[in-house]
Prior knowledge:
mainly alpha, 19 helices
Amino acid sequence: MRLVALSRLVALVSAPVTLLLVATRTSPAEQGFYFVFVNVQAIASLFELGVGTMLVQFTAHASSGWQWAARGEPTGDPISIDLLYSVVANAERWFAIAALLSTALLLPTGIYFFEPEGARNGIPYALPWTVVTVALGCYLTIVPLLCTLEGTGQLPRLQRMRLMQAIATAVTLWVLIPIVGGLNAVAVASVVQLAIAVVWLVGRFPGFVRRAASRIPAAARTERAGSGLSRAQSRTATAWIVGFLGPQLLSPVIFRYVGADAGGRAGLTMAGASAPLMIGLAWLQARYPEYGALAAQRELDRLDAISKRATLQALGVCVTLSLLLIVLVLALGRFDAGLASRFLSLPQVSAVCATSVAYLLYHAMAAHLRAHREEALLWPLVLGTAATIAATIAFAPRGVAPAVFAYSAGVIGLLFPSSFLVFRRRRRSLRSLSPQVGSIAREGPRKQ
């Protein structure tokens, strides 16, 4: 937990410096491009924290009967190891497809999307955009390996690597934004992030990487983990992609319908409001392996207690940091009007922060159910996100404020309530099926 907190603390502390550099060293138009680039670069981390959480919990289920050898590969019960590689195989196939599709779709779409504003403002975007999208595709292919390590007891070592990534990314942006501009800085930072992960994987777990590459095709054919795992992973992948679209499309939609300057203000605000959300999600993610293990043992009372405590802690972090952002924007409005103009207005910032809190609660509920290998909140998410995106696009031509408030109303007024109702019903159903409901409270924690 300390390493998780430290890696997120680095991101939290470095973010204001990065945002200040963007606001003071780039033009308003380039700021709009910058945050669209950052949204795409962040897809890798969001996949790791989102789609990958199901893989973390599946591998936590499959982590008994073997251990990590000194040479960095599983050793022990061959059946358990085969099960592990089958889980990895299902994830690798999906992530490989996602990598190809993301590159094939994002690269030409981005060039088409950016062309009018790029030509109007004289912003060279093609080369850095190509680097960012290709680096994203490469990173997605190693996410299953990273998530497998996290779910099988290697979280501390993985967090050290993520800490190195956070530091290197921050330093890269700080050094390069004033020198080569925001877009080129993002491109270099995406390559640095990828290189650190690849070097760490090959250096620390060479046996695992080598055997995964050689055994994944065979494991994929045998499907030892069963089609249920593949279906659940696919549903989780769908849920996370849909959940990603809602908040990440706000800035590009405003960019498209209002202009690059307005898109930049929306992007800077979303970046500030997303930081508390991502730190809160990281707080939750550190407990996901424990969620999966408790669900597998049917210790549902302990699962409920730990999930509730982790959610309240993450909620406290998210709300506190969101309030700090609101106070910051308020202070800038009084003392530095020029810098304050790079953000949305205070009511709009408050609405975006409230939406981030709603998304955190949604992810907390989804993680609780995913411990049971379920994605019961998929349809509330799909319908709520579809309505949110439709409302945002419909109101965007009327201006920034209507688009922002339509986005917030869709998430807070539709997506979150419907998800909460489904969560309560499904949680009661899962407890009624458990033969051990209440036994933990009577017997106390199991002795190890």
